[in-house]
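Section 3.1 - Work completed
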Amino acid sequence: MKENTETLLYASKETGLEVNADKTKYMVIPRDQNAVRSHNINNDNCSFERVEDFIYLGTAVTRRNSIQEEIKSRLKPGNGCYHSVQNILSYSLLSENIKIKIYRTIILPVVSYGCETWSLTLREERRLRMFESRSEIFGPKKDDVTREWRELHNEELNVLYSPNIVRVIKSRRMRWARHVARVVDIRGACRVLVGRPDRKRPLGRHRSR
């Protein structure tokens, strides 16, 4: 890592640029999460801080490479966005189609930002579905048998939200994969998609997600 820092500083000077040490951080994602953490890198009167997580282009990147923190960081502004339009969604004169359009136009893009790189587990899928079902977009419904007002069942919500948030995320991932497959193979995203490792995998099982 120190050699990479020296290379960065040297290349910056060659082009007449100066690295801002206060805005430059670095993070290491080791295979062994219990490995000893190194200190800040000091070089050429500059100190580069090592961080455990940071925000890159609106996406949370963590040392443990966990998608849980990223989804958590997206659900928080999603809840805030929902509460900002809650008064509009609770308006009884709006049709279900209009409410769905408001949800997909205002709330869903906030929650699903950067979802093309998410690797969802069943736990995270349930968490996203729970967020979607708990968004009180639709009011109560009169039961056809008891003639009493009740909340919508999960099956009814699935029909209204079709396709649900998990299907939307998976379709966007597939669309992004097709886009990457069409680009020139020298770009980093395509190399990660179609490339093959040139070394053997270390001993031991994969880290559980």
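Second construct:
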Amino acid sequence: MFIRMGMFDTIYLDKAIACKTCGADILDFQTKEFESCMNHYRIGSVLSGSRVLSGVIKDEAYCQACSDAKRDAWMDVYFVVWHTILAGVEAEECKAEARLASVDRLDLVQWIAEAQKREEQWQRRFFDLRNELRGWHEYVEDQKKPPEPETEDNKFWRALRSIRRPSEEITTAADPIGKILELHAPRKKEEPPGLF
């Protein structure tokens, strides 16, 4: 991905746009058409700082394949904005205008469902990471304590703590926290960078 100088926002596409010159897939690119606050947008995202409430905005996308082949790496792209929502990104203005005319409430329902699904995935990943770190912390603290006498009550609490005990992969790692972060890294290439 080409990095623009200064602040920008990044657009991530679920369906690639083909470069007009070489045909390479473009799945993400940077823009300064909105707030330029390092925000990440997808189709269905509310655009912060859009100068257009509903309409088509012309911008440029960068093709890394063309740049590598020493060709002009920039191509025109058109953002479809519907009531401040990114409704599409097209390589041709006429397709962008057609997309704007075809947006309806069912699209809005689909975008909301997709946004909620992504939010639930991020929440699940956050809570999984938090619980893994909490388990590691408890494991480290337990290692500092002297052995407890064998009583029925201690057996119960020890068994309960063992449920949250980190895996051997983590406890034997040279950098256990790094290993936890590695295990919780994004799994899909198209998943934009974020908290974890």
